[in-house]
Design a protein that fits this description.
The complex is a heterodimer of chains A (144) and B (303). Chain A is built from 2 helices and 8 strands. By secondary structure, chain A is mainly β. With 303 residues, chain B is an alpha/beta fold. Chain B has a 5-stranded parallel sheet. A 4-stranded parallel sheet of chain B has the order 2-1-3-4, with helices on both faces. In chain B, helix 5 crosses helix 6. The relative contact order of chain B is 0.15. Classes of the chains: A mainly beta (144), B alpha/beta (303).
């Protein structure tokens, strides 16, 4: 069993679906932070059997919770101060996301317009459906 | 400042006001002959569309305004690689209102975000064509006197036809509308539309033969069945005649049925039906000018 030490200040993202941590690392642009990041893959989980965990030693405000909620709103976000969990944040599906995913509809204006942001809005919260602001094409996992 | 991107941008109350204005224009054209004196409409058409463009040009001219523009991308700065955002900023300096058609979906919305003037979506790819829907609604309201309590049959290509999807989305806001979708299996209305109707408890049925439902319809909205939509020639030949409206099928219809078509037609309505007083598709084209006149006045806040 691998041991990764406690962090003093930052956040721990727990219950990430096994194998998804790297994708979250990229979406949250953690590579751009000058701090300690631990990526734990396939950790043992009582609930799921396997899970991923991310430990990031930095200011909690640097984390874009909207992006995280879009990727998986079932992730647990633990805020750490002085080595202890001081807060658990609930993730809520964001109403709009900007430049997190791209519209893959070749007929959409985003495919040709210079520097146009790729904006998706939450069209159906129950079914977790996001649509492109411009062409209204439904975002599908395949296009992620 | 308001724009028109989708037919749902206007509430039903706002649509009533717009249609009242269109009807007043129809009755009293002289009253509006100088309403847009000194105003300029820019028609930015990145793909050819004679009918819609001329309808906008006719509308502005009848209001006393003037029109500038281009009718295909090749004759615009888009051919040099200019973005929609830049083009509309320039057009905003030259005109007071813009009607834009673009093959890319969402292009008029990009224009509206950057424009200093109202932008009307005059068709963006297979996405929206709101002024066609306004035309359809005005025609129904003017000729039936109401936009509720009727059975409408939509016939032909219900899968790819954006005018059909827009019209359904606009009509579900009114009371007691019953839909009958008449199409081959290959061109059935998409699931997201029927799912929406189920969710809202709006009655609909899907049938293959037009003759079977003709007696029940208050309105028949015809669309063109395009050969290229079929996987093989055999299926096309087998099905295409189901969707040709002729005088024989018209004998099955109610005495006051309204036959509509967004035009252009190819052969799906026999020419002999044109003389039937229930054929309203050319009148519909006339209403297309009135509703665009009313829309220009409304967006320019001159109404």
């Amino acid at each position: 069993m691998l041991n990764v030490g406690k962090i003093e200040e930052g956040f721990v993202l727990d219950h990430i679906a096994a194998g998804k941590s790297l994708s979250i690392y990229e979406h949250l642009q953690l590579d751009k932070l000058d701090c300690t990041v631990a990526i734990i893959k396939n950790a043992r989980s009582n609930k799921k059997g396997k899970k991923d965990i991310l430990k990031v030693e930095c200011d909690i405000n640097t984390l874009d919770l909207d992006v995280l909620a879009f990727i998986d709103h079932n992730i647990t976000v633990n805020v750490i101060k002085n080595g202890e969990i001081v807060e658990k944040k609930d993730l809520v599906l964001p109403r709009q996301i900007k430049n997190v995913i791209r519209c893959h509809n070749p007929r959409c204006i985003t495919s040709i317009e210079q520097e146009l942001p790729h904006i998706f809005y939450l069209a159906d919260a129950e079914k977790e459906v996001y649509r492109c602001k411009y062409c209204e094409e439904k975002y599908t996992e395949m296009a992620k | 400042m308001r724009h028109l991107m989708s037919p749902l941008d206007f509430s039903t109350e706002e649509l009533d006001k717009l249609f009242d204005l269109a009807n007043d224009i129809e009755q009293n054209p002289q009253k509006y002959a100088h309403a847009c004196d000194g105003r300029i409409l820019a028609t930015c058409f990145y793909e050819p569309s004679t009918r819609t463009r001329l309808s906008f040009e006719s509308a502005m001219t009848r209001l006393g305004g003037r029109v500038i523009g281009f009718s295909d991308a090749a004759s615009s700065s888009a051919a040099k690689g200019e973005s929609v955002s830049d083009t509309i900023r320039i057009i905003s300096c030259y005109s007071d209102i813009c009607a834009m058609r673009h093959p890319k979906e969402g292009a008029p919305m990009v224009a509206a975000e950057r424009a200093g003037i109202p932008v009307i979506n005059a068709g963006d790819g297979g996405h929206q064509h709101p002024t066609q829907t306004l035309t359809d609604l005005l025609t129904i309201r003017s000729m039936k006197g109401k936009l509720d309590n009727f059975t409408i049959g939509l016939c032909g290509d219900l899968k790819f036809g954006r005018t059909v999807h827009s019209l359904i989305n606009a009509l579900v806001r009114y009371k007691n509308i019953r839909f009958i979708f008449i199409s081959p299996e290959e061109l059935k209305v998409p699931d997201y539309i029927t799912d929406m109707l189920k969710e809202r408890n709006i009655p609909y049925e899907e049938v293959i033969r037009l003759e079977d439902v003709m007696p029940h319809l208050d309105i028949l909205y015809m669309t063109r069945v395009q050969k290229e939509r079929f996987f093989n020639e055999e299926d096309y030949v087998r099905l295409k005649d189901f969707y040709i409206l002729d005088t024989v099928k018209m004998t099955l219809a109610k005495k006051d049925i309204l036959v509509l078509h967004p035009l252009p037609r190819v052969n799906e309505i026999s020419v002999e039906v044109d003389d039937d007083p229930r054929a309203a598709y050319f009148k519909q084209a006339q209403y297309g000018v009135y509703v665009r006149m009313a829309l220009i006045l409304t967006l320019l806040e001159l109404a």
